Task: inverse folding
Protein backbone atom coordinates (compact mmCIF):
# COMPACT_ATOMS: atom_id res chain seq x y z
CA UNK A 1 0.00 0.00 0.00
CA UNK A 2 1.12 3.53 -0.59
CA UNK A 3 2.71 5.04 2.47
CA UNK A 4 0.94 8.36 2.95
CA UNK A 5 -2.56 6.94 3.11
CA UNK A 6 -1.75 3.79 5.06
CA UNK A 7 -1.87 5.31 8.55
CA UNK A 8 -5.42 6.38 8.12
CA UNK A 9 -6.73 2.99 7.10
CA UNK A 10 -10.37 3.93 6.92
CA UNK A 11 -9.63 6.72 4.48
CA UNK A 12 -8.15 4.45 1.81
CA UNK A 13 -10.78 3.61 -0.77
CA UNK A 14 -11.17 -0.14 -1.33
CA UNK A 15 -11.39 0.61 -5.02
CA UNK A 16 -10.74 3.75 -6.95
CA UNK A 17 -11.06 4.31 -10.68
CA UNK A 18 -9.40 7.37 -12.16
CA UNK A 19 -10.54 8.54 -15.59
CA UNK A 20 -10.76 4.97 -16.85
CA UNK A 21 -11.12 4.61 -20.63
CA UNK A 22 -11.42 1.60 -22.89
CA UNK A 23 -11.79 1.54 -26.65
CA UNK A 24 -12.45 -1.46 -28.83
CA UNK A 25 -11.29 -0.15 -32.20
CA UNK A 26 -13.52 2.86 -32.83
CA UNK A 27 -15.99 1.99 -30.09
CA UNK A 28 -15.46 3.77 -26.82
CA UNK A 29 -16.89 1.31 -24.36
CA UNK A 30 -15.76 3.12 -21.23
CA UNK A 31 -15.25 6.90 -21.10
CA UNK A 32 -13.51 8.69 -18.27
CA UNK A 33 -15.10 6.66 -15.52
CA UNK A 34 -14.11 7.88 -12.08
CA UNK A 35 -15.42 6.02 -9.09
CA UNK A 36 -14.51 5.62 -5.44
CA UNK A 37 -15.67 2.85 -3.15
CA UNK A 38 -14.83 2.98 0.56
CA UNK A 39 -14.68 -0.15 2.75
CA UNK A 40 -18.19 -1.21 3.65
CA UNK A 41 -19.79 0.79 0.84
CA UNK A 42 -22.59 -0.75 -1.15
CA UNK A 43 -22.62 0.75 -4.60
CA UNK A 44 -24.53 -0.23 -7.66
CA UNK A 45 -23.99 0.53 -11.30
CA UNK A 46 -27.08 0.52 -13.44
CA UNK A 47 -27.57 1.30 -17.07
CA UNK A 48 -29.30 -0.02 -20.17
CA UNK A 49 -27.96 -2.98 -22.13
CA UNK A 50 -24.72 -2.16 -23.86
CA UNK A 51 -23.93 0.71 -21.51
CA UNK A 52 -20.54 -0.87 -20.78
CA UNK A 53 -21.20 -2.27 -17.33
CA UNK A 54 -19.57 -5.65 -17.82
CA UNK A 55 -16.69 -4.04 -19.74
CA UNK A 56 -16.11 -1.84 -16.70
CA UNK A 57 -15.98 -4.96 -14.51
CA UNK A 58 -13.55 -6.61 -16.85
CA UNK A 59 -11.31 -3.55 -16.62
CA UNK A 60 -11.50 -3.51 -12.84
CA UNK A 61 -10.67 -7.20 -12.57
CA UNK A 62 -7.90 -7.09 -15.15
CA UNK A 63 -9.42 -9.23 -17.87
CA UNK A 64 -9.04 -6.41 -20.41
CA UNK A 65 -6.09 -4.04 -20.47
CA UNK A 66 -7.18 -0.42 -20.02
CA UNK A 67 -6.72 2.13 -22.81
CA UNK A 68 -6.01 4.90 -20.36
CA UNK A 69 -6.68 5.75 -16.73
CA UNK A 70 -5.91 3.98 -13.48
CA UNK A 71 -7.33 1.28 -11.25
CA UNK A 72 -6.37 1.51 -7.57
CA UNK A 73 -7.05 -1.25 -5.06
CA UNK A 74 -6.60 -0.21 -1.43
CA UNK A 75 -4.46 2.70 -2.57
CA UNK A 76 -2.23 0.58 -4.76
CA UNK A 77 -2.03 1.08 -8.50
CA UNK A 78 -2.95 -2.30 -9.99
CA UNK A 79 -3.67 -1.09 -13.53
CA UNK A 80 -1.15 -3.43 -15.11
CA UNK A 81 -1.68 -6.40 -12.77
CA UNK A 82 -3.13 -9.72 -13.95
CA UNK A 83 -6.42 -10.88 -12.42
CA UNK A 84 -5.05 -13.47 -10.03
CA UNK A 85 -2.79 -10.92 -8.33
CA UNK A 86 -5.69 -8.52 -7.83
CA UNK A 87 -7.59 -11.39 -6.23
CA UNK A 88 -4.67 -11.94 -3.87
CA UNK A 89 -4.96 -8.30 -2.80
CA UNK A 90 -8.56 -8.79 -1.66
CA UNK A 91 -10.79 -8.42 -4.67
CA UNK A 92 -13.29 -11.03 -5.79
CA UNK A 93 -15.92 -11.15 -8.48
CA UNK A 94 -18.86 -13.19 -9.62
CA UNK A 95 -20.04 -13.65 -13.17
CA UNK A 96 -23.16 -12.71 -15.04
CA UNK A 97 -23.14 -16.11 -16.72
CA UNK A 98 -22.94 -18.69 -13.95
CA UNK A 99 -19.34 -19.94 -13.90
CA UNK A 100 -19.32 -22.82 -11.47
CA UNK A 101 -17.81 -26.28 -11.82
CA UNK A 102 -20.96 -28.18 -12.71
CA UNK A 103 -19.61 -31.70 -12.34
CA UNK A 104 -18.11 -31.10 -8.92
CA UNK A 105 -20.04 -31.14 -5.67
CA UNK A 106 -20.91 -27.93 -3.84
CA UNK A 107 -18.19 -28.70 -1.29
CA UNK A 108 -15.53 -29.29 -3.95
CA UNK A 109 -16.44 -26.03 -5.66
CA UNK A 110 -15.83 -24.18 -2.42
CA UNK A 111 -12.63 -26.12 -1.65
CA UNK A 112 -11.25 -25.18 -5.06
CA UNK A 113 -12.22 -21.56 -4.49
CA UNK A 114 -10.52 -21.39 -1.09
CA UNK A 115 -7.39 -23.06 -2.42
CA UNK A 116 -6.96 -20.31 -5.00
CA UNK A 117 -4.97 -18.05 -2.72
CA UNK A 118 -2.96 -20.74 -0.93
CA UNK A 119 0.58 -21.55 -2.02
CA UNK A 120 -0.31 -25.23 -1.66
CA UNK A 121 -2.53 -24.98 -4.74
CA UNK A 122 0.43 -26.30 -6.75
CA UNK A 123 0.84 -29.45 -4.62
CA UNK A 124 0.37 -32.66 -6.59
CA UNK A 125 1.41 -35.33 -4.10
CA UNK A 126 -1.38 -34.90 -1.56
CA UNK A 127 -5.15 -35.26 -1.72
CA UNK A 128 -7.10 -32.02 -1.86
CA UNK A 129 -9.49 -33.41 0.74
CA UNK A 130 -6.63 -33.91 3.22
CA UNK A 131 -6.23 -30.20 4.00
CA UNK A 132 -8.23 -30.00 7.20
CA UNK A 133 -8.07 -26.25 7.65
CA UNK A 134 -9.34 -25.62 4.12
CA UNK A 135 -12.07 -28.17 4.67
CA UNK A 136 -13.14 -26.49 7.91
CA UNK A 137 -13.28 -23.13 6.23
CA UNK A 138 -15.41 -24.53 3.41
CA UNK A 139 -17.70 -26.04 6.02
CA UNK A 140 -17.98 -22.68 7.76
CA UNK A 141 -18.74 -20.81 4.51
CA UNK A 142 -21.40 -23.31 3.52
CA UNK A 143 -22.94 -23.11 6.97
CA UNK A 144 -23.21 -19.33 6.77
CA UNK A 145 -24.79 -19.53 3.35
CA UNK A 146 -27.20 -22.30 4.41
CA UNK A 147 -25.76 -24.74 1.92
CA UNK A 148 -24.53 -27.36 4.35
CA UNK A 149 -27.35 -29.80 3.72
CA UNK A 150 -26.56 -29.76 -0.01
CA UNK A 151 -22.77 -29.90 0.21
CA UNK A 152 -22.51 -33.27 -1.55
CA UNK A 153 -24.89 -32.38 -4.36
CA UNK A 154 -23.35 -31.96 -7.78
CA UNK A 155 -23.68 -28.32 -8.74
CA UNK A 156 -25.46 -29.07 -12.02
CA UNK A 157 -28.32 -30.52 -9.98
CA UNK A 158 -28.91 -27.29 -8.06
CA UNK A 159 -31.65 -24.88 -9.09
CA UNK A 160 -30.66 -21.73 -10.95
CA UNK A 161 -31.33 -19.60 -7.88
CA UNK A 162 -29.12 -21.81 -5.73
CA UNK A 163 -26.40 -21.68 -8.36
CA UNK A 164 -26.51 -17.88 -8.35
CA UNK A 165 -26.08 -17.90 -4.57
CA UNK A 166 -23.24 -20.41 -4.76
CA UNK A 167 -21.63 -18.13 -7.32
CA UNK A 168 -21.38 -15.52 -4.53
CA UNK A 169 -20.19 -18.05 -1.96
CA UNK A 170 -17.27 -18.84 -4.29
CA UNK A 171 -16.56 -15.13 -4.50
CA UNK A 172 -16.42 -14.96 -0.70
CA UNK A 173 -14.05 -17.92 -0.41
CA UNK A 174 -10.93 -15.82 -0.86
CA UNK A 175 -11.92 -13.55 2.09
CA UNK A 176 -12.23 -10.50 -0.16
CA UNK A 177 -12.51 -6.96 1.13
CA UNK A 178 -14.28 -5.88 -2.01
CA UNK A 179 -16.72 -7.99 -3.94
CA UNK A 180 -17.80 -7.25 -7.50
CA UNK A 181 -21.17 -8.74 -8.35
CA UNK A 182 -22.07 -8.98 -12.02
CA UNK A 183 -25.87 -9.24 -12.15
CA UNK A 184 -26.32 -11.63 -9.23
CA UNK A 185 -30.06 -11.80 -9.89
CA UNK A 186 -29.76 -12.56 -13.61
CA UNK A 187 -32.50 -14.92 -14.67
CA UNK A 188 -34.07 -15.20 -11.22
CA UNK A 189 -37.78 -15.21 -10.55
CA UNK A 190 -39.11 -12.38 -8.40
CA UNK A 191 -39.28 -14.66 -5.36
CA UNK A 192 -35.74 -15.82 -5.94
CA UNK A 193 -34.42 -12.29 -6.35
CA UNK A 194 -35.99 -11.28 -3.04
CA UNK A 195 -34.08 -14.19 -1.52
CA UNK A 196 -30.97 -12.93 -3.27
CA UNK A 197 -31.41 -9.45 -1.79
CA UNK A 198 -31.75 -10.94 1.66
CA UNK A 199 -28.70 -13.07 1.05
CA UNK A 200 -26.68 -10.03 -0.02
CA UNK A 201 -27.85 -7.91 2.91
CA UNK A 202 -26.67 -10.60 5.34
CA UNK A 203 -23.07 -10.33 4.12
CA UNK A 204 -20.36 -8.87 6.37
CA UNK A 205 -21.00 -5.10 6.69
CA UNK A 206 -17.26 -4.38 6.40
CA UNK A 207 -17.22 -5.88 2.92
CA UNK A 208 -17.39 -3.33 0.11
CA UNK A 209 -19.71 -4.34 -2.70
CA UNK A 210 -19.93 -3.05 -6.23
CA UNK A 211 -23.00 -4.38 -7.94
CA UNK A 212 -24.19 -4.39 -11.54
CA UNK A 213 -27.84 -5.25 -11.72
CA UNK A 214 -30.89 -4.98 -13.89
CA UNK A 215 -33.33 -5.98 -11.19
CA UNK A 216 -34.23 -2.62 -9.64
CA UNK A 217 -35.74 -4.18 -6.52
CA UNK A 218 -32.40 -5.80 -5.73
CA UNK A 219 -30.51 -2.58 -6.46
CA UNK A 220 -32.74 -0.41 -4.28
CA UNK A 221 -32.63 -3.01 -1.46
CA UNK A 222 -28.90 -3.50 -1.42
CA UNK A 223 -27.20 -0.30 -2.61
CA UNK A 224 -26.65 2.91 -0.67
CA UNK A 225 -25.36 4.68 -3.72
CA UNK A 226 -26.13 4.23 -7.39
CA UNK A 227 -24.20 5.29 -10.46
CA UNK A 228 -25.90 5.38 -13.83
CA UNK A 229 -23.80 4.34 -16.79
CA UNK A 230 -24.83 5.37 -20.29
CA UNK A 231 -22.69 4.83 -23.39
CA UNK A 232 -19.70 4.10 -21.19
CA UNK A 233 -20.05 7.30 -19.21
CA UNK A 234 -21.22 7.91 -15.67
CA UNK A 235 -24.25 10.10 -16.06
CA UNK A 236 -25.25 10.58 -12.50
CA UNK A 237 -24.39 9.31 -9.03
CA UNK A 238 -26.59 9.53 -5.97
CA UNK A 239 -28.72 7.84 -3.37
CA UNK A 240 -31.42 5.42 -4.55
CA UNK A 241 -34.07 8.10 -3.88
CA UNK A 242 -32.38 10.81 -5.91
CA UNK A 243 -31.72 8.39 -8.77
CA UNK A 244 -35.35 7.29 -8.75
CA UNK A 245 -36.43 10.91 -9.05
CA UNK A 246 -33.84 12.05 -11.58
CA UNK A 247 -35.63 12.92 -14.83
CA UNK A 248 -32.57 12.16 -16.97
CA UNK A 249 -32.25 8.69 -15.51
CA UNK A 250 -35.92 8.04 -15.96
CA UNK A 251 -35.65 9.08 -19.54
CA UNK A 252 -32.78 6.75 -20.48
CA UNK A 253 -33.32 3.87 -18.21
CA UNK A 254 -36.42 3.54 -16.13
CA UNK A 255 -38.74 4.74 -18.86
CA UNK A 256 -41.34 7.41 -18.23
CA UNK A 257 -44.17 6.28 -16.03
CA UNK B 1 -17.51 -50.19 -5.00
CA UNK B 2 -16.64 -53.70 -3.83
CA UNK B 3 -17.10 -54.99 -7.38
CA UNK B 4 -14.68 -52.35 -8.59
CA UNK B 5 -12.17 -53.25 -5.88
CA UNK B 6 -12.46 -56.94 -6.72
CA UNK B 7 -11.94 -56.20 -10.43
CA UNK B 8 -8.81 -54.18 -9.64
CA UNK B 9 -7.40 -56.98 -7.48
CA UNK B 10 -8.06 -59.53 -10.24
CA UNK B 11 -6.51 -57.22 -12.86
CA UNK B 12 -3.45 -56.70 -10.71
CA UNK B 13 -3.08 -60.42 -10.03
CA UNK B 14 -3.37 -61.09 -13.77
CA UNK B 15 -0.70 -58.46 -14.53
CA UNK B 16 1.62 -59.79 -11.84
CA UNK B 17 1.47 -63.35 -13.20
CA UNK B 18 1.63 -62.59 -16.93
CA UNK B 19 4.82 -64.63 -17.55
CA UNK B 20 3.11 -67.70 -16.06
CA UNK B 21 -0.06 -67.75 -18.09
CA UNK B 22 0.93 -66.10 -21.36
CA UNK B 23 1.33 -68.71 -24.11
CA UNK B 24 4.80 -67.58 -25.16
CA UNK B 25 7.67 -65.14 -24.98
CA UNK B 26 6.18 -63.15 -27.83
CA UNK B 27 3.05 -62.39 -25.83
CA UNK B 28 5.02 -61.39 -22.77
CA UNK B 29 6.79 -58.88 -24.97
CA UNK B 30 3.44 -57.61 -26.20
CA UNK B 31 2.41 -57.14 -22.57
CA UNK B 32 5.58 -55.11 -21.94
CA UNK B 33 4.75 -52.93 -24.94
CA UNK B 34 1.23 -52.37 -23.65
CA UNK B 35 2.67 -51.24 -20.31
CA UNK B 36 4.99 -48.58 -21.67
CA UNK B 37 2.50 -47.34 -24.24
CA UNK B 38 -0.01 -47.11 -21.41
CA UNK B 39 2.39 -44.84 -19.51
CA UNK B 40 2.71 -42.72 -22.66
CA UNK B 41 -1.07 -42.53 -22.95
CA UNK B 42 -1.39 -41.65 -19.24
CA UNK B 43 1.02 -38.80 -19.85
CA UNK B 44 -0.90 -37.47 -22.83
CA UNK B 45 -4.16 -37.89 -20.91
CA UNK B 46 -2.95 -35.34 -18.35
CA UNK B 47 -3.27 -32.77 -21.10
CA UNK B 48 -6.08 -34.15 -23.25
CA UNK B 49 -8.32 -35.40 -20.47
CA UNK B 50 -7.63 -33.25 -17.45
CA UNK B 51 -6.38 -29.98 -18.95
CA UNK B 52 -8.58 -30.02 -22.05
CA UNK B 53 -5.54 -29.36 -24.23
CA UNK B 54 -5.17 -31.71 -27.19
CA UNK B 55 -1.56 -32.25 -28.21
CA UNK B 56 -0.75 -33.70 -31.60
CA UNK B 57 3.00 -33.53 -31.11
CA UNK B 58 3.64 -35.80 -28.17
CA UNK B 59 5.51 -38.36 -30.28
CA UNK B 60 8.08 -35.61 -30.88
CA UNK B 61 8.72 -35.34 -27.14
CA UNK B 62 8.72 -39.10 -26.82
CA UNK B 63 11.35 -39.19 -29.57
CA UNK B 64 13.52 -36.50 -27.97
CA UNK B 65 13.73 -38.46 -24.71
CA UNK B 66 14.36 -41.73 -26.58
CA UNK B 67 17.08 -40.20 -28.77
CA UNK B 68 18.66 -38.57 -25.72
CA UNK B 69 18.94 -41.95 -23.98
CA UNK B 70 20.19 -43.64 -27.13
CA UNK B 71 22.75 -40.96 -27.90
CA UNK B 72 24.11 -40.92 -24.35
CA UNK B 73 24.58 -44.68 -24.48
CA UNK B 74 26.27 -44.44 -27.86
CA UNK B 75 28.69 -41.93 -26.41
CA UNK B 76 29.61 -44.55 -23.85
CA UNK B 77 27.91 -43.20 -20.73
CA UNK B 78 26.43 -45.65 -18.25
CA UNK B 79 22.74 -46.51 -18.07
CA UNK B 80 21.87 -44.50 -14.94
CA UNK B 81 23.32 -41.30 -16.38
CA UNK B 82 21.72 -41.92 -19.78
CA UNK B 83 18.32 -42.41 -18.16
CA UNK B 84 18.69 -39.32 -15.98
CA UNK B 85 19.77 -37.14 -18.89
CA UNK B 86 16.92 -38.48 -21.04
CA UNK B 87 14.42 -37.59 -18.31
CA UNK B 88 15.85 -34.11 -17.87
CA UNK B 89 15.98 -33.42 -21.61
CA UNK B 90 12.48 -34.84 -22.08
CA UNK B 91 10.99 -32.61 -19.39
CA UNK B 92 13.01 -29.60 -20.53
CA UNK B 93 11.76 -30.05 -24.10
CA UNK B 94 8.24 -30.23 -22.73
CA UNK B 95 8.86 -26.94 -20.95
CA UNK B 96 9.86 -25.31 -24.24
CA UNK B 97 6.93 -26.97 -25.97
CA UNK B 98 4.57 -25.67 -23.31
CA UNK B 99 6.02 -22.18 -23.33
CA UNK B 100 5.35 -21.96 -27.06
CA UNK B 101 2.03 -23.77 -27.30
CA UNK B 102 0.30 -22.56 -24.13
CA UNK B 103 -0.03 -19.15 -25.72
CA UNK B 104 -3.26 -20.51 -27.08
CA UNK B 105 -5.81 -23.21 -26.32
CA UNK B 106 -8.19 -25.24 -28.46
CA UNK B 107 -7.37 -25.46 -32.16
CA UNK B 108 -4.41 -23.11 -31.77
CA UNK B 109 -2.83 -25.43 -29.22
CA UNK B 110 -3.36 -28.44 -31.47
CA UNK B 111 -1.77 -26.71 -34.45
CA UNK B 112 1.27 -25.46 -32.53
CA UNK B 113 1.95 -28.87 -30.99
CA UNK B 114 1.48 -30.43 -34.42
CA UNK B 115 4.01 -28.02 -35.91
CA UNK B 116 6.52 -28.59 -33.09
CA UNK B 117 6.17 -32.35 -33.48
CA UNK B 118 6.84 -32.06 -37.20
CA UNK B 119 9.89 -29.86 -36.58
CA UNK B 120 11.34 -32.50 -34.24
CA UNK B 121 10.56 -35.22 -36.76
CA UNK B 122 12.36 -33.21 -39.44
CA UNK B 123 15.35 -32.72 -37.14
CA UNK B 124 15.56 -36.43 -36.38
CA UNK B 125 15.47 -37.12 -40.09
CA UNK B 126 18.00 -34.52 -41.18
CA UNK B 127 20.42 -34.10 -38.29
CA UNK B 128 22.25 -37.23 -39.30
CA UNK B 129 25.39 -36.66 -37.22
CA UNK B 130 23.27 -36.78 -34.07
CA UNK B 131 20.43 -39.14 -34.89
CA UNK B 132 21.83 -41.31 -37.64
CA UNK B 133 19.03 -40.07 -39.90
CA UNK B 134 16.96 -42.76 -41.52
CA UNK B 135 19.27 -45.49 -40.22
CA UNK B 136 18.37 -44.61 -36.66
CA UNK B 137 20.28 -45.37 -33.49
CA UNK B 138 20.85 -48.86 -32.18
CA UNK B 139 21.41 -49.74 -28.54
CA UNK B 140 23.79 -52.52 -27.70
CA UNK B 141 22.44 -53.50 -24.32
CA UNK B 142 19.73 -53.12 -21.76
CA UNK B 143 20.70 -52.13 -18.23
CA UNK B 144 21.09 -54.52 -15.32
CA UNK B 145 18.99 -53.92 -12.28
CA UNK B 146 20.12 -55.34 -8.92
CA UNK B 147 21.96 -58.08 -10.76
CA UNK B 148 19.01 -58.99 -13.00
CA UNK B 149 19.66 -58.52 -16.68
CA UNK B 150 16.85 -56.69 -18.43
CA UNK B 151 17.68 -58.68 -21.57
CA UNK B 152 15.61 -61.41 -19.97
CA UNK B 153 12.02 -61.10 -21.20
CA UNK B 154 10.46 -61.66 -17.79
CA UNK B 155 12.77 -59.25 -16.00
CA UNK B 156 12.01 -56.55 -18.52
CA UNK B 157 8.30 -57.19 -18.14
CA UNK B 158 8.45 -56.90 -14.35
CA UNK B 159 10.58 -53.76 -14.51
CA UNK B 160 7.98 -52.24 -16.88
CA UNK B 161 5.19 -53.38 -14.58
CA UNK B 162 6.76 -51.73 -11.52
CA UNK B 163 7.29 -48.46 -13.39
CA UNK B 164 3.79 -48.66 -14.79
CA UNK B 165 2.26 -49.18 -11.35
CA UNK B 166 4.24 -46.27 -9.96
CA UNK B 167 3.10 -44.05 -12.83
CA UNK B 168 -0.51 -45.10 -12.32
CA UNK B 169 -0.24 -44.43 -8.57
CA UNK B 170 1.26 -40.99 -9.27
CA UNK B 171 -1.59 -40.28 -11.69
CA UNK B 172 -4.20 -41.40 -9.14
CA UNK B 173 -2.82 -39.04 -6.52
CA UNK B 174 -2.36 -36.22 -9.05
CA UNK B 175 -6.02 -36.31 -10.08
CA UNK B 176 -7.14 -35.87 -6.47
CA UNK B 177 -4.46 -33.36 -5.51
CA UNK B 178 -4.96 -29.59 -5.32
CA UNK B 179 -3.07 -29.17 -8.59
CA UNK B 180 -5.17 -31.86 -10.28
CA UNK B 181 -8.38 -30.24 -9.08
CA UNK B 182 -7.12 -26.84 -10.20
CA UNK B 183 -6.20 -28.25 -13.60
CA UNK B 184 -9.69 -29.61 -14.12
CA UNK B 185 -10.97 -26.23 -12.96
CA UNK B 186 -8.96 -24.47 -15.66
CA UNK B 187 -10.35 -26.94 -18.18
CA UNK B 188 -13.96 -26.21 -17.23
CA UNK B 189 -13.90 -22.55 -16.11
CA UNK B 190 -10.63 -20.77 -16.86
CA UNK B 191 -12.18 -17.34 -16.27
CA UNK B 192 -13.51 -18.30 -12.89
CA UNK B 193 -10.20 -19.91 -11.89
CA UNK B 194 -8.44 -16.69 -12.74
CA UNK B 195 -10.91 -14.70 -10.67
CA UNK B 196 -10.34 -17.10 -7.75
CA UNK B 197 -6.65 -16.24 -7.74
CA UNK B 198 -5.27 -19.12 -9.77
CA UNK B 199 -2.57 -18.44 -12.33
CA UNK B 200 -4.17 -20.46 -15.12
CA UNK B 201 -1.08 -20.47 -17.31
CA UNK B 202 1.18 -21.71 -14.50
CA UNK B 203 -1.21 -24.54 -13.65
CA UNK B 204 -1.30 -25.66 -17.27
CA UNK B 205 2.48 -25.35 -17.47
CA UNK B 206 3.04 -27.61 -14.45
CA UNK B 207 0.58 -30.12 -15.87
CA UNK B 208 2.59 -30.09 -19.12
CA UNK B 209 5.76 -30.86 -17.17
CA UNK B 210 4.07 -33.81 -15.47
CA UNK B 211 2.86 -35.03 -18.83
CA UNK B 212 6.39 -34.63 -20.21
CA UNK B 213 7.82 -36.66 -17.34
CA UNK B 214 5.48 -39.59 -17.96
CA UNK B 215 6.14 -39.35 -21.69
CA UNK B 216 9.91 -39.44 -21.13
CA UNK B 217 9.63 -42.43 -18.79
CA UNK B 218 7.70 -44.38 -21.40
CA UNK B 219 10.18 -43.29 -24.10
CA UNK B 220 13.09 -44.69 -22.11
CA UNK B 221 11.30 -48.00 -21.64
CA UNK B 222 10.50 -47.99 -25.35
CA UNK B 223 14.09 -47.42 -26.39
CA UNK B 224 15.30 -50.19 -24.12
CA UNK B 225 12.61 -52.49 -25.42
CA UNK B 226 13.26 -52.03 -29.14
CA UNK B 227 16.97 -51.20 -28.67
CA UNK B 228 16.48 -49.06 -31.75
CA UNK B 229 15.06 -45.66 -32.55
CA UNK B 230 14.41 -44.04 -35.90
CA UNK B 231 12.59 -40.88 -37.07
CA UNK B 232 9.49 -43.04 -37.58
CA UNK B 233 8.98 -42.91 -33.81
CA UNK B 234 8.42 -39.15 -33.99
CA UNK B 235 6.08 -39.18 -36.96
CA UNK B 236 2.66 -37.58 -36.88
CA UNK B 237 1.05 -41.01 -37.14
CA UNK B 238 2.72 -41.94 -33.85
CA UNK B 239 1.31 -38.80 -32.18
CA UNK B 240 -2.12 -39.57 -33.59
CA UNK B 241 -1.88 -43.16 -32.39
CA UNK B 242 -1.37 -42.17 -28.73
CA UNK B 243 -4.10 -39.61 -29.00
CA UNK B 244 -6.40 -42.36 -30.27
CA UNK B 245 -5.38 -44.56 -27.33
CA UNK B 246 -6.46 -41.79 -24.95
CA UNK B 247 -9.68 -40.92 -26.74
CA UNK B 248 -10.80 -44.49 -27.49
CA UNK B 249 -10.22 -45.60 -23.92
CA UNK B 250 -11.76 -42.50 -22.40
CA UNK B 251 -10.02 -39.16 -21.95
CA UNK B 252 -10.11 -37.78 -18.43
CA UNK B 253 -10.35 -41.20 -16.79
CA UNK B 254 -7.58 -43.09 -15.05
CA UNK B 255 -8.13 -46.44 -16.72
CA UNK B 256 -9.19 -45.20 -20.15
CA UNK B 257 -5.70 -44.61 -21.58
CA UNK B 258 -4.60 -48.04 -20.36
CA UNK B 259 -7.52 -49.75 -22.08
CA UNK B 260 -6.86 -47.68 -25.21
CA UNK B 261 -3.17 -48.60 -25.21
CA UNK B 262 -4.07 -52.26 -24.83
CA UNK B 263 -6.49 -52.08 -27.74
CA UNK B 264 -4.07 -50.35 -30.10
CA UNK B 265 -1.04 -52.48 -29.22
CA UNK B 266 -2.96 -55.75 -29.44
CA UNK B 267 -4.42 -54.91 -32.84
CA UNK B 268 -1.07 -53.61 -34.09
CA UNK B 269 1.04 -56.55 -32.97
CA UNK B 270 -1.09 -59.65 -32.38
CA UNK B 271 -4.03 -59.19 -34.74
CA UNK B 272 -1.79 -57.87 -37.52
CA UNK B 273 -0.25 -61.36 -37.59
CA UNK B 274 -3.58 -62.78 -38.71
CA UNK B 275 -5.14 -59.96 -40.67
CA UNK B 276 -3.14 -58.16 -43.27
CA UNK B 277 -5.39 -55.10 -43.26
CA UNK B 278 -5.11 -54.49 -39.53
CA UNK B 279 -5.04 -50.74 -40.14
CA UNK B 280 -8.50 -51.04 -41.60
CA UNK B 281 -9.63 -53.05 -38.61
CA UNK B 282 -8.22 -50.49 -36.17
CA UNK B 283 -9.97 -47.72 -38.08
CA UNK B 284 -13.24 -49.66 -38.02
CA UNK B 285 -12.92 -50.20 -34.26
CA UNK B 286 -12.38 -46.48 -33.70
CA UNK B 287 -15.37 -45.59 -35.83
CA UNK B 288 -17.46 -48.08 -33.86
CA UNK B 289 -16.25 -46.58 -30.58
CA UNK B 290 -17.03 -43.06 -31.71
CA UNK B 291 -20.53 -44.08 -32.78
CA UNK B 292 -21.42 -46.33 -29.85
CA UNK B 293 -19.41 -44.81 -27.00
CA UNK B 294 -18.30 -41.31 -27.94
CA UNK B 295 -17.02 -40.77 -24.40
CA UNK B 296 -14.59 -43.71 -24.70
CA UNK B 297 -14.57 -47.38 -23.80
CA UNK B 298 -14.18 -47.05 -20.02
CA UNK B 299 -16.89 -44.43 -19.34
CA UNK B 300 -19.06 -46.00 -22.05
CA UNK B 301 -18.91 -49.44 -20.50
CA UNK B 302 -19.60 -47.96 -17.09
CA UNK B 303 -22.66 -46.22 -18.52
CA UNK B 304 -23.99 -49.41 -20.12
CA UNK B 305 -23.30 -51.31 -16.89
CA UNK B 306 -25.31 -48.80 -14.86
CA UNK B 307 -28.09 -48.87 -17.42
CA UNK B 308 -28.29 -52.67 -17.32
CA UNK B 309 -28.20 -52.60 -13.53
CA UNK B 310 -31.02 -50.09 -13.32
CA UNK B 311 -33.10 -52.00 -15.83
CA UNK B 312 -32.67 -55.20 -13.87
CA UNK B 313 -33.76 -53.42 -10.69
CA UNK B 314 -36.72 -51.90 -12.47
CA UNK B 315 -37.58 -55.30 -13.92
CA UNK B 316 -37.51 -56.77 -10.42
CA UNK B 317 -39.80 -54.08 -9.04
CA UNK B 318 -42.18 -54.15 -11.99
CA UNK B 319 -42.94 -57.87 -11.85
CA UNK B 320 -44.55 -57.93 -8.40
CA UNK B 321 -46.36 -54.69 -9.25
CA UNK B 322 -47.92 -56.19 -12.38
CA UNK B 323 -48.85 -59.29 -10.42
CA UNK B 324 -50.79 -57.11 -8.01
CA UNK B 325 -52.51 -55.30 -10.83
CA UNK B 326 -53.92 -58.50 -12.33
CA UNK B 327 -56.68 -59.34 -9.84
Result:
Amino acid sequence: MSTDTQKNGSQVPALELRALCKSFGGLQATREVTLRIMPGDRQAIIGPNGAGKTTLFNLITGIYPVTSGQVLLFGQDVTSWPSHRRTALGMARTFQVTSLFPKLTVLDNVLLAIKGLRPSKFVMWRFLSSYKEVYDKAHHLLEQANFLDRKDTEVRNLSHGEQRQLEIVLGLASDPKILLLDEPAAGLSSGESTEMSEFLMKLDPKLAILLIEHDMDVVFDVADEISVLHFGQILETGTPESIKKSPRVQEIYLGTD
Amino acid sequence: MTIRFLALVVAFAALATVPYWMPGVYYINVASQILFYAIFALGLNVLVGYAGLVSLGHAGLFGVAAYAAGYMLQLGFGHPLAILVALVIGVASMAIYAALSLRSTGIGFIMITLALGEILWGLAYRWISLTGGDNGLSLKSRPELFGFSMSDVNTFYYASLVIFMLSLAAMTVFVRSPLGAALMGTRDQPRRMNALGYHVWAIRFYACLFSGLLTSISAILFVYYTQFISPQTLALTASAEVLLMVISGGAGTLLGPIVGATLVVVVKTVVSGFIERWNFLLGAIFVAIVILMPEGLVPGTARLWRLAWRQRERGASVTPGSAEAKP
